[in-house]
Amino acid sequence: MNVFVTILLAVQMISAVAMVGLILVQHGKGADMGAAFGSGGSGSLFGASGSANFLSRTTAVLATVFFVSTLALAYFGTPRAASSSGSVLENAAVTAPANAMPTPALPASGAAQIPVK
Question: Is the pTM of this model over 0.90?
């Protein structure tokens, strides 16, 4: 189980770094207008509109992998009791000691310290 959590953590870190890189490579919405009129769009690897589609889909896939690995790490990272039958309150009542909150001891001369007018 420990190896599985380590693999999940590695997948999460790789997807996070790749997602940050892909987001930084993408251009904004305002750059599409310049690429439509031939301002550097013809020299790109994917063409004027192909890069946005490829990069946005790849970013969406990496975001999905990141969220799934995050949820799996949260699920496998929480400790579970051996017998989890019943509700949370029933389990807390069984595991809690009978005298969980000790009552504070009052001083013997507590009433004598109260000022009276």
Answer: no
